[in-house]
UniProtKB/TrEMBL annotation:
This is Benzoate/toluate 1,2-dioxygenase reductase subunit. GO terms for molecular function: 2 iron, 2 sulfur cluster binding; dioxygenase activity. Residues 12-105 form the 2Fe-2S ferredoxin-type domain. Keywords: Dioxygenase, Oxidoreductase. InterPro entries: 2Fe-2S_ferredoxin-like_sf (IPR036010), 2Fe-2S_ferredoxin-type (IPR001041), 2Fe2S_fd_BS (IPR006058), BenC-like_FAD_NAD-bd (IPR047683), Beta-grasp_dom_sf (IPR012675), Cbr1-like_FAD-bd_dom (IPR008333), FAD-bd_FR_type (IPR017927), Flavoprot_Pyr_Nucl_cyt_Rdtase (IPR001709). It comes from Bradyrhizobium erythrophlei. NCBIfam families: BenC. Residues 112-212 form the FAD-binding FR-type domain. Pfam families: FAD_binding_6 (PF00970), Fer2 (PF00111), NAD_binding_1 (PF00175). SUPFAM superfamilies: 2Fe-2S ferredoxin-like, Ferredoxin reductase-like, C-terminal NADP-linked domain, Riboflavin synthase domain-like. Gene3D superfamilies: 3.10.20.30, Nucleotide-binding domain of ferredoxin-NADP reductase (FNR) module, Translation factors. The keyword Hydrolase does not apply. PROSITE patterns: 2FE2S_FER_1, 2FE2S_FER_2, FAD_FR.
Amino acid sequence: MMAGRWSRRVPHTIALNFEDGTTQFIRADESESIADAAYRHGINVPLDCTNGVCGTCKAFLQSGEFDPGSYIEDALSDVEAAEGYVLCCQAKAKSDMVIDILASSGACKVKPKDTIAEIVEVEALSTHRMRLSVKPLEGTLPMFLPGQYVNVTAPDQMTSRPYSFTSAPGADVATFLIRNVPGGKMSAYLEAKAKTGDRLLLNGPFGSFYLRAPRRPILFLAGGTGVGPILSMLEHLAARGANNQPVQLVYGARDDADLVEVERIEALAARIPKFAYHTTCSGPGSRHPLTGHVTDHFAAGSLNNGDVDVYLCGPPEMVENGRQHVAKLGLSPANIHFEKFAPASEVLTA
């Protein structure tokens, strides 16, 4: 989520990210501190004073503009302020913001939001890939940062799985790219039982794998359904802009048929300036123009001498190989964000 400009009389949206991966969105106008806005929404951010003296409410700013307010050096040093830290009891929003709260959501009395949604469509993209589309039964879909996920619970209220949005925040219909796991309860439901109008429970959002403000070139590395959250990031960049920064995607799958959503990526390429992508398949006998692993198709030049944001998502082995490959190139990207996608065990909801 990028910092957007609003009228001074319209509250700004602030995403509060907690240490356990929970994200809560609040609205704050320019006359109130972030802490006051959070308390108004029932969120108890860490706080021992309200006048910039103790430093307990120190948080990290991911993006956005703000008035830092007044505080003493012991509460927030000049070095910390330069690194991006703010004091929630003093800072006031001047735009949309994304802030990391240095505490768990439970400690701040945050409860993830439940949203009732109904199925619009379940589409088989290949034998092993499905696209799930849902819309809210009432109101709007949950707010989220591009790249985040929600826990989706099926109608029996027993089977719950985490799925990343592939749609952009604010869309009327949310989409998810799902791996069809043989024997999986949710997979079996979506493949054989789900029908238009069925209700699902979405709980969240969650996750620290989300798009940061584009201040340097971006390299996306995706394996399998790990392309899902990256699609959400690309949709957001297409809608909001990449600040004229180069964007590159290398997307791989084992089997040719499972290299899905390529037409969507092609359409996004027409909407995002300086966006280029490559696809590859690693399975034996592949007839894809590029074969091999994702790491076979980017080199040191893609890392812009280390001044690059890298987003890496896919199976655990692929993610680890990607991180090791970057290290072998002798460069340390300014920022590397990753998420490992593995067939999760079915979760029983109490």
